[in-house]
């Protein structure tokens, strides 16, 4: 069943056509990630689904309901963490959760939330003393206080250090374990690849691609890049001549003691190549098989470099 169904969403701000006909559906229990560069239209799309912005055109169905007829019901059933959260510097973590809890009929115990977002030790700490990562975890905790079925997280890890980012990833994966549906936006390709059930790549207000990260990556190429480092330039040149004759090898380039191959079957290519180097007594110092990433998908589909 679709928890979210958006069709043909459009939104302009004056002359800026920020969202140009976005459509997708999100299934129950998915971590659905909208990824795209700055200004791609991610937040605008999210805010139209969250009921914070009125679309100029198009339709949003959330939990089978629409904002125009069921706003109050929907607010009880969703949780929203905005890109920037206004908090009260002098209130503690626990006090924040208590205040937000009072806004809802349906609620989860504060102790549960503190455990979920790993803030038990900071429960008596005032917000002004929290680190960036802790503040962000509290913002997520506030979005969870009504035990929502659908949780919207708008760039929850932007600006955080790698460890703090990983802590948030863990929370998001736990939400999936709890059966929640999570809609996430991010700039970070690695994050999208690690967390998402499906990834929606957005650029200039439009969906460029939508699928699992694995399927998107497979779609751009069945070829893999293999880098090999030898020890003597002449040997590497011989290896390149040999590699060029291997059926599964589509391209060979050398640069000094480095050789790069594009292969449709890395295992087969390496097997044949090692057979050759062993026979010739050539030394191979290092091998690296590069995985394609979502970044490669973005570049292949838009012709643009990814700007993190
Ligand atoms: N309230 C607004 N008034 C005017 N222009 C806006 C407004 N909100 C967004 N825009 C413009 O709409 C476009 C899409 O913005 P949006 O914030 O949705 O992008 P985004 O993908 O979320 O970007 P970021 O990753 O930087 O948050 C941008 O060109 C932005 O400047």
What can be said about this structure in brief?
This protein is of the alpha/beta class. It is 37% helix and 29% strand.
Please write out the topology.
Elements: E1 2-13, E2 16-27, E3 31-35, H1 42-49, E4 57-62, H2 67-77, E5 78-81, H3 93-101, H4 110-116, H5 132-144, E6 150-154, H6 162-177, E7 181-186, H7 189-195, E8 198-203, E9 206-211, H8 213-220, E10 224-230, H9 233-244, E11 249-255, E12 258-263, H10 266-280, E13 284-290, H11 294-302
Parallel strand pairs: 3-7, 3-8, 5-6, 6-7
Antiparallel strand pairs: 1-2, 1-4, 8-9, 10-12, 10-13, 11-12
The structure holds adenosine-5'-triphosphate.
Largest sheet: 6 strands, mixed
What is the helix fraction of residues, given as a range? 25-40%
Query: What's the Cα radius of gyration?
Result: 24 Å
Judged by helices, strands and strand pairing, the structural class is: alpha/beta
Low-confidence stretches: none
Distinct small molecules? adenosine-5'-triphosphate
Assigned CATH superfamily of the largest domain = P-loop containing nucleotide triphosphate hydrolases
Broad CATH class of the largest domain: Alpha Beta
Percent of residues in beta strands: 25-35%
Find the CATH topology of the largest domain.
Answer: Rossmann fold
Q: Number of domains in the coordinates?
A: 2
Enumerate how many helices there are, as a single number: 11
